[in-house]
Amino acid sequence: MKVAISMRSVQEPLLRGDMRITDFIKYAASLAVEGVELDDAYLSGAGVDNGEIQGILKETGLQVSCYDICHQMEPLQGKAQEEELERIQAELLVAKSLGVRYVKAVGGAFDSGVTARQVEDLIGQLVEMVLPALQGTNLTLVIENPASVNFDSRHLAQLLAEIDNPQVKAGFNMANAFVAGEDPEAALERLKDQIVHVRAVDVRWADCDEEPQSGSYVGCVVGLGLVPLERLFKVLRTQEYEGWISLEFTGLEDAYFGTEASLKNLRQCLVALQSEVFHPSES
After folding, report:
1. Could you tell me whether strands 203-205 and 168-173 are parallel, antiparallel, or unpaired per DSSP bridges?
2. Judging by beta carbons within 10 Å of its beta carbon (0-12, 13-18, 19+), is residue 83 exposed, middle or buried?
3. The domain at 2-278 falls in which architecture?
4. Which residue among 14, 88, 229, 270 is least enclosed by CB atoms within 10 Å?
């Protein structure tokens, strides 16, 4: 498994302007990971030339594990849909120029009032808009499981089976499955044949004086929260998953501290997993 750092891990420095896109890539390289997950939400209007990003990627030897495209959280009609399509197509051009294999959509959190059918309609429209632009390319649209109590891994697995296109696959967000009230291990098993990208995120219960980020939870250092990280990695190993693990720190601590502490815990988990492969415990 290859490890990448998501831009969302350091979103505060990025939004404050303390860190540029190129700074982020250099920062990720300093952590000795294999890749970065880029998000169009931070690139749009950042005033960075794609050629500059390409140069930094080449200089650091990092790959782009995934490119997150921005989209509306509900289906659109008429002119609004046309404008959304134009914007998404522009994002896909950026992804292509950076040599990206996967572009990700959905994920995030849906209010409990949003039904499974509404999420399905959103995904259906996104696939309808994006898929024609992917033809003739090696790009794959990754639909990440959202944090939704009404749309779970069963819905996503069934929807992907109905779409039945090799350029539309699943992304697995560890925390989203937990926040949605699912057993993350069962969700991972259910989606195993479709998963091409995994996001390692963790959450904890919000304290009484904290504003929850999703449901009753706030983000935390990966490996210190409620998400069963080790068990999920064992499932991935059993499934022979060899793709990207994108680390996303969403906690309230300092972004740099949280990212680096999360990476340390993630690496310890992967080392322990590898050790089990070569030195399995006696039954």
Report:
1. unpaired
2. exposed
3. Alpha-Beta Barrel (3.20)
4. 270
Q: Are 187 and 198 in contact (CB under 8 A)?
A: no
> Are 199 and 173 within 8 A, CB to CB?
yes
Distance of alpha carbon 176 from the chain centroid: 10
Phi first, then psi: what are they for 31, rounded to 5°? -90, 0
* Tokens coding 178: 């937990």
Gap between the Cα atoms of 265 and 231, Å rounded? 14
Q: What is the pLDDT of residue 283?
A: 41
Q: How would you label 119-152 residue by residue, b for 16+ Cβ within 10 Å and e otherwise? A: bbebbebbbebbeebbeeeebbbbbbbbbbbbbb
In angstroms, the CA 249 to CA 5 distance is 9
Q: What is the pLDDT of residues 208-230, one digit of tens each?
A: 898 888 888 999 999 999 999 99
User: For residues 174 and 117, what is the distance between their CA atoms, to the nearest angstrom?
Assistant: 23
